[in-house]
Amino acid sequence: MRLLLDENLPVALAGRLGAHEVSTVSGLGWAGTKNGDLLIRIEGRFDAFSTLDSNMEHQQVMRGRPFALLVVHCVSNRLADLVPLVPEILDALEAISAGDVHAIGAA
After folding, report:
1. pLDDT reading at 39 higher than 90
2. Cα-flanking dihedrals φ and ψ of residue 102, to 5°?
3. pLDDT, tens digit, for every residue of 52-65?
4. What angle is formed at CA 84 by the lines to CA 91 and CA 77, rounded to 5 degrees?
């Protein structure tokens, strides 16, 4: 699975996601890119995009996109707060399909 982590998620989270091919928005030099433009850049490059931006699924059309969206609901973006959600993220990555929107953690 080719996963892209949004800039609001810590880079260190990538190392916790097992055998998946994980890239980061900041690592690609895409930091500061508006959501609509970012989603266009993701198409054809990634199978899933993970973000803490709970508004993205309401502000952007996901139906028909060639990748899934994982929206992480967490009290902060600190790695210590996100690590307990890693098993749920990994389970979601095994079950999602293109165009899906999946919530991780308490909404």
Report:
1. yes
2. -125, 130
3. 999 888 888 888 89
4. 105
